[in-house]
Amino acid sequence: MKNVLILGANGQIAKLVRDRLLKETGDNLTLYLRHSNRLTVKNPSREKIIDGDVNDTKKLIEVMKNQDIVYANLGGKFGPMAKSMIQAMNTSNVNRLIYVGGLGLYHELPKKFDDWNENVIGHEVMEDTRRAAKVIEDSDVNFTILRCAYMTNEDKIDYELTEKGEEYKGTIVSRKSIADLIVKIIKEPTIHQKSSLGIDQPGTDGDKPVGY
Prior knowledge:
Protein name: NAD(P)H-binding protein
InterPro entries: NAD(P)-bd_dom, NAD(P)-bd_dom_sf, Polyketide_Oxido-like
Largest sheet: 8 strands, mixed
Strand order of the largest sheet: 3-2-1-4-5-6-10-8
Radius of gyration: 17 Å
Shape: globular
Strand content: 15-25%
Order of helices and strands: EHEEHEHEHHEEEEHE
Pfam families: NAD_binding_10
Structural class: alpha/beta
Distance between the termini: 42 Å
């Protein structure tokens, strides 16, 4: 039984992870999010909901106490949030992190797809994302960064992984697939340590995502 802190707990993937952890494990969950009235407790003996901003480092330090794993699924300015999160983890002696981000951090996509992605997302947002990843990778925490392809709501679990330094493969991936990998890591935190993983659906390679 572990204590798991979910940052950005109202996200679509976070909700999938939450439901599976409640069903498949005995882990205790702390659900941290802004506007906490958007969620309700499903299992009072194993869950608590806390209203807070990841940029509020002081509050985050308090919430981090006695946590075993932090799973972050955030939106906004990623660089400052990553700094706050790492500071809180270090202060609270919490070491295991799963961080969900997007693809293209290292220009690891095939050239045409990389150019398309950079143009669609925008250079400023991509650089903010890269700064956040660098903060995490340069830290002492035991991280797993997920570089997710363009997400779909398909009711399927079908994915492949690429390591940092390898060329990215596909263009899309289901949220259920991302949630599946996160749940696997939470169940077995010794896998994918100090890793930055690309996650995509096999057979979806192309110059841009299917449907765009």
